[in-house]
Design brief:
CATH class of the largest domain: Mainly Beta
CATH superfamily of the largest domain: q2cbj1_9rhob like domain
CATH topology of the largest domain: Jelly Rolls
Largest sheet: 11 strands, antiparallel
Number of domains: 2
Radius of gyration: 22 Å
Number of strands: 25
Strand content: 25-35%
Amino acid sequence: MTTPPAPPIAGDYAPWFHAKALSGSDRYAFHSVGGRHVLMLFFGTASQPGAKAALEVVAKHREVFDDEHAVFFGVTVDPSDVAQNRIAQDLPGIRYFLDYDRAVSRLFGAAKDAHRYEPFWVLLDRELRVIQRYRIDAGEAAIAELRKRTAKVPDGVAPVLTVPDVFDAETCRMLIDLYNKDGGTASGFMRDVDGKTTHVLDDNFKRRRDTSIEDAKLIQMLSQRIARRVAPAIERATHFKATRIERHIVACYEAGKGHFRPHRDNTTFGTAHRRFAVTINLNAEEYEGGDLRFPEFGGRTYRAPTGGAVVFSCSLLHEAMPVTKGKRYAFLPFLYDEEARAVREANLDKLAAAGGQDVKQEGAA
């Protein structure tokens, strides 16, 4: 029997999980909340006086939870909390997990077994690391620390590489012309639905159009540029040798429309093999907005010069900021190695029939 991991303590990264959210997603991805401080309250059942008092503390300090700097998640294991309207989602910033199987509570050490439950608060930083755990009657202290932490949070530096001169100006313009000739198609994102990685379109989460490159000679030339100029930079910085490339697309984010909200690139069955994301800007001087941001490290944004690449781990939470003027064109492959290729092949049967075309496009880097 496998021993379950020990509950996180101060300094540890909190475990990632999916759980049903009250008045929200049936499979809320906890890892997506990075970039903001998180206060969790494992109260078990709001029928208990201690839990009721703790929730009153949250209500008293309602203004703290704005979804920009801080969020609150309450965790209940009692279905009667919903049936009797003891709890309710209150956006922005106030959400609840319906942890009826106690899976989340076990991860954090609140559920000792089917009968014993230890209620407490947990405060997390914007990288989802545990700052401190507090007894359920210490809510004021938890929120005081939260206020202190969010009053002034300095920007960090995200662990990204910038690689100049991957493509020359002629190649960049040729790829832009290729996109404009085709016009692109709506680009979605991948999500696991009922055990299958499915292609989803949602303009509120992502709005972009993509053109797939089909010409074999052009694909070979672009792949060779990646292999000679991007892969060595990754190997020098991380001791990781990228040997495979996924998809050859030109993407376009348009002013007033283009954006991609915070996400990670390897959190589904069909994308678990991805190791590094590569964003090669094709016209960096011709648009405003549209830069990359890594919320867990603050508000700093990143943009490579025309022909240059921003390269980062697919595990990093990141977003493409809205384009405010012009059109942003980019070439956007993913890189991985032979070990990850085995993961990709093992998961091919988990791709939904109507989606995941990008994931199916593979070549040598």
